[in-house]
Specification:
The longest helix has 20 residues, at 30-49. Strand 3 (86-87) and strand 4 (91-92) form a beta hairpin. By secondary structure, the chain is an alpha+beta fold. Mean pLDDT is 89; it is low at 318-351. The protein is globular. It is built from 9 helices and 14 strands.
């Protein structure tokens, strides 16, 4: 059988995005509404995106652990579990979320029209946990003033970093995604001298050049979020976006990281919040607070299109062997999915 077609996980980065996380109500009929949207989502994106083909509208739909069991049951993606909160010097919280919609376009109006149509379809069957409207800030900078996304893999490297292959053949073409909403204390951050900020992030602020290892602190953000196993760097694809509400004094970054295994992102977060070694935590967290945290599985587009409104789970394509398999057998070993890591948690980063 042909390989499953992935969702637009590795779509080109855009100037606008909407991140929508919802929970599904338990009333009768809710499941059928959600399942109907699964099968119709691709057509909905095409219909709205056709208004401006250069707008590059796309949407990724992902499911939390409990929602997967509710809608699809067995078989189940082998690494799917609830987000594990992390307690170290700072706290990576775990927050509710059944479905994630990651909507991207070069135009915010296209993003807004799509999210409006999605919510019109879902009607009263969902409750919104979080909705964030992200924007591109000057030359791809975060609100803390540093370029964000420099070290993202591209093209085939991005596919190899994010799309499941032979390691879970029943769900080949799928991916995992972790989202976190960070709020920045910009007043305190802007009081920090630029040279000290550069040491915290691990890059120069103006020119976006990575600091030499001889001068870069071991606690630098980009040092702690670099994961190397058996001599190979394990990459993820980030599509972080700034957001804010100046009237409320709210300034933040929405972190979204895709990977073919959630373990590599989880290890990055452990390094950040607990430290590598423990205690050598990410000093950026002294100024940026995580207020959400959820893990989702992104099934292939083929899987979604095969979802029906009935109770039977859709068949899973039997993909052909993935020629670009990445060996995740050596991923960092984390405790069982009991809701906690038992410890006490971003462009190769935000940079």
């Amino acid at each position: 059988m042909p390989s499953a077609i992935p969702q637009s996980v590795v779509a080109q980065l855009t100037r606008a995005a909407i991140f929508l996380v919802v929970t599904i109500k338990s009333e009768p009929g809710c499941d059928a509404v959600v399942r109907a949207l699964c099968g119709d989502l691709a057509a909905l994106v095409r219909a709205i995106g056709f208004r401006d083909l250069e707008g590059r509208l796309s949407c990724v739909m992902g499911f939390g652990s409990d929602a997967w069991d509710r809608f699809f049951g067995q078989p189940r993606p082998k690494d799917l579990h609830p987000f594990r909160e992390i307690r170290g010097r700072h706290h990576a919280v775990a927050t509710p979320g059944d479905i994630l919609f990651h909507i991207r376009s070069s135009r915010m109006d296209l993003c807004f029209e799509l999210v409006t149509q999605i919510m019109a379809r879902l009607g009263g069957v969902v409750a919104t946990t979080d909705e964030v409207h992200g924007f591109n800030y000057f030359d791809d900078r975060d609100l803390i003033g540093f370029v964000d996304g420099t070290e993202n893999p591209v093209e085939q490297a991005a596919v190899e970093a994010t799309i499941i292959g032979e390691e879970d053949t029943a769900f080949a073409g799928g991916s995992y995604v972790i989202v976190q909403k960070y709020l920045h204390d910009l007043k305190r951050w802007n009081e920090v001298p630029t040279e000290e900020q550069e040491g915290i992030v691990g890059r120069t602020k103006l020119s976006d050049i990575e600091l030499d290892d001889a001068v870069k602190p071991s606690s630098a953000h980009n040092a702690l979020t670099t994961i190397v196993e058996n001599g190979k760097q394990l990459e993820i694809v980030r599509d972080n976006m700034p957001f804010g509400d100046a009237g409320k004094g709210e300034f933040g970054t929405y972190f979204i990281g895709y990977a073919r295994s959630p373990h590599r992102i989880e290890q990055m977060l452990v390094n950040m919040f607990v430290g590598r070694p423990p205690g050598n935590y990410d000093r950026l967290l002294d100024f940026s607070r995580a207020v959400t945290g959820t893990l989702f599985f992104v099934p292939s587009a083929t899987f979604l299109e095969n979802v029906t409104t009935g109770e039977t789970a859709p068949s899973v394509a039997d993909p052909s062997p993935d020629k670009h398999k990445i060996d995740d057998a050596s991923q960092p070993q984390l405790p069982p999915p009991d809701g906690s890591l038992g410890i006490g948690s971003l462009k190769g980063d935000w940079t």
